[in-house]
Specification:
Layout lengths: L2 E6 L4 H12 L6 E8 L1 E8 L2 H10 L7 E7 L14 E3 L4 E6 L5 H10 L9 H12 L4 H9 L6 E7 L2 E10 L4 E4 L4 E4 L11 E4 L4 E6 L2 E6 L10 E2 L15 H7 L1 H9 L3 E2 L4 E2 L8 H5 L3 E6 L1 H17 L4 E5 H4 L10 E7 L5 H12 L3 E6 L5 H5 L2 E4 L12 H21 L3 H22 L2 H11 L4 E6 L4 H15 L2 E6 L16 E5 L6 H13 L3 E7 L11 E5 L8 H18 L18
Parallel strand pairs: 17-18, 17-19, 19-20, 20-21, 22-23, 22-24, 24-25, 25-26
Antiparallel strand pairs: 1-4, 1-10, 2-3, 2-4, 5-6, 6-7, 7-8, 8-12, 9-10, 9-11, 11-14, 12-13, 15-16
Bound molecules: 6-O-phosphono-alpha-D-glucopyranose.
6-O-phosphono-alpha-D-glucopyranose binds next to helix 9.
Length: 608
């Protein structure tokens, strides 16, 4: 999704802003731009990659100056054109701004501003905000921003500069993330820590309605009504190495291969084998509420929802708690019933997904205890929940989520055992689960070793435009995740569903040679899955099965087999998903797509 970087300090702003934009490229965007103050205001914008913007700057001799702002735009209002790219400006006042989010009442404001004589050059909601701040400007940028933000509804993270105040940078947030990185005599404002860590590890995340006025000498934090807000500075736990590609060709590939380490980090210090217990510091203060919980609602979007669905199965199966997983975007608007003892778990890699955040707020307002299963430390969801458990899988840059998925399933299995042990499970039983859990990182490694073979299988089928992904029980969500991965980066149409559901319609799609991926590992419904495989093959479909090592018999019933090591069924999605991630990755590379910058997608969706 859109990215912001802004700078005020003593260094030349242009290279720093460009480097910041490159760090934000992974979030997904379609145009880029920057503005730098140097006597006057200089703006440069370009459609397409940051590299296009760089070329353009080079051709025009570049921009000098030590205060500026930059943006990668992911189109919402108005097409992908240079005129719609940020920064946007109000020429009369010399105000210039970049914006993430959506100004919902932009249409009314635009009419008002047009009546006042403002002439718009873009179709964006952002230009309306620039003009509004300009209209309200009376010589104090901070005050004009506060006044304008009192008039807008919607979501925003903004950075604003003004020709008439060349040593001031103002930023503000509601609903979209923004951080102020604090250096010595310099500040880097960004929508994502990855654009800050090269310069400083001290940062202040803005809260909703926070407005911060920054000069080289310091900053002032207030709200939109100019009431001072005490700043909360945190240490960024991200180092540069973690966000560099290293020996890998793509971030997605790197993150697939990081999964064994990511899982070891996730489990470290959380498994007390001798006591047959899970130790989750983040939940200990709420252990009593969790033991007495009457129901758990898990919510998220995309991959996070698939992990949540596995959590639903585990909580009911092992902890004996009624549970359900729901799209956050549906939950937030459907007037949900929250009874006493309801716990809501928001699952999110970024901790910034707008719908997940809104669902969380809705559940909290209705009295639910809220937990976060989040990767990004200090993110909005992690701050807005009562308690939570971090994934600890390290930064995920690849747009197609991989290590966050296994991390989410791992954390949900820890939460399940944390609750199960206190409700229905003996220490011995729990210890047996924990033993199994600890074997997973090594087993993931064994699946990764088969990458070449998975690539060969993928090569055989990746010219087909329609695929099915089918699974049952714990591996029904895995099937959804496999289909999502393939769609996201290879642009092949893929549908995931419960294997039994196929008979109720999708079976009509099966024709000669159509690939159907079955998750057919050993488990309670193995025989049923085998029957579904037979139904597909009887209609000419070609079956790629993800099966359990040692299952030689299955080879006689399918076209291809990809093996995963044996593991207790509820934990199996952490293994069965790996070949599906690799298939999607290889298919995208073979088809010549930019794996880390899939078309139209954004890593973090901070608008509805
Ligand atoms: C976007 C991403 C997905 C991700 C989803 C939820 O759609 O492209 O990969 O699963 O958002 O993101 P979250 O950060 O909340 O896990």
């Amino acid at each position: 999704m859109c990215g912001i970087v802004a700078y005020i300090g003593k260094k030349p702003a242009q290279p720093l802003l460009i480097e910041g934009l490159k760090r934000l490229e992974y979030r997904g965007y379609d145009s880029a731009g920057l503005a730098i103050l140097n006597g006057g205001l200089n703006v440069c914008r370009a459609v397409g990659r940051v590299a296009n913007l760089e070329d353009k700057l080079e051709q025009t001799g570049g921009l000098q100056g030590t205060v500026g702002l930059a943006h990668t735009r992911w189109a919402t209002h108005g097409g992908v054109t240079e005129m719609n790219a940020h920064p946007h400006r109000d020429d009369k006042s010399g105000i210039c701004l970049v914006h993430n989010g959506i100004i919902e009442n932009y249409s009314v404001l635009k009419t008002y501003l047009q009546e006042k004589g403002h002439v718009f050059t873009s179709e964006t909601d952002t230009e309306v905000l620039a003009m509004l701040i300009g209209e309200l400007y009376e010589g104090d940028l901070e005050k004009a921003v506060q006044a304008a933000l009192r008039e807008v509804t919607g979501a925003y993270a903004i950075a604003v500069i003004c020709e008439k105040e060349p040593d001031v940078l103002v930023c503000a947030r509601k609903g979209s993330p923004l951080l102020v990185g604090i250096g010595s005599g310099e500040y880097v404002v960004a929508s994502d820590a990855s654009a800050i860590v090269a310069h400083t590890t001290q940062a202040m995340p803005l809260d909703d309605y926070n407005v911060v006025r920054i000069t080289r000498e310091g900053f002032r934090s207030s709200d939109i009504h100019d009431v001072e807000v005490s700043p909360k500075v945190m240490q960024l736990e991200l180092d540069l190495e973690q966000i560099e590609l290293g020996r890998f060709e793509h971030y997605m590939q790197k993150e697939i291969y990081e999964q064994p380490t990511a899982l070891r980090n996730c489990f470290r210090g959380r498994i007390a084998m001798e006591e047959g217990k899970v130790v989750l510091g983040g939940l200990s203060a709420y252990a009593k509420e969790l033991v007495r919980a009457g129901r758990v609602i898990l919510t998220g979007q995309g991959t996070a929802l698939h992990a949540a669905m596995i959590g639903e199965y585990m909580l009911e199966d092992l902890a004996k708690i009624p549970a359900c997983a729901e799209y956050a975007s549906e939950f937030r608007y459907r007037n949900p019933i929250i009874e006493d003892g309801t716990v809501v778990i928001a699952v999110s890699q970024s901790g910034e997904t707008a719908d997940t955040l809104a669902a969380l707020e809705e559940a909290k307002d209705r009295g639910a205890l809220s937990l976060g299963v989040v990767n990004v430390v200090g993110s909005t969801i992690s701050r807005q929940t009562d308690a939570g458990v971090y994934l600890r899988v390290g930064p995920e840059i690849g747009v197609a989520s991989t290590k966050a998925f296994v991390g989410q399933v791992a954390v949900l299995s820890l939460i399940t055992l944390f609750m199960a042990r206190r409700r229905v499970m003996s220490a011995d039983q729990c210890a047996r689960w924990l033993e199994q859990l600890q074997t997973i990182p090594d087993k993931v490694e064994r699946v990764l070793e088969q990458s070449d073979r998975i690539k060969k299988v993928t090569e055989r089928y990746c010219d087909r435009e329609n695929w099915l992904f089918l699974g049952r029980g714990y591996n029904y969500p895995t099937a959804l995740e496999g289909a999502l991965k393939l769609k996201e980066i290879s642009y092949i149409h893929a549908e995931g569903m419960p294997a039994a559901e196929m008979k109720h319609g999708p079976i009509a799609l099966i024709n000669e040679g159509m690939p159907a991926v079955f998750i057919a590992n050993k488990g309670r419904q193995y025989d049923k899955v085998m029957s579904n495989i037979a139904e597909v093959r009887a209609r000419g479909g070609h079956v790629i099965a993800v099966a359990t090592e040692g299952d030689e018999e299955i080879k006689r019933h399918v076209e291809e087999v990809l093996y995963v090591p044996e593991i207790i069924e509820p934990l199996s999605p952490m293994l069965t998903v790996i070949p599906l991630q690799l298939m999607a990755y290889h298919a995208a590379v073979i088809r010549g797509h930019d794996v880390d910058k899939p078309r139209n997608l954004a890593k973090s969706v901070t608008v509805e």
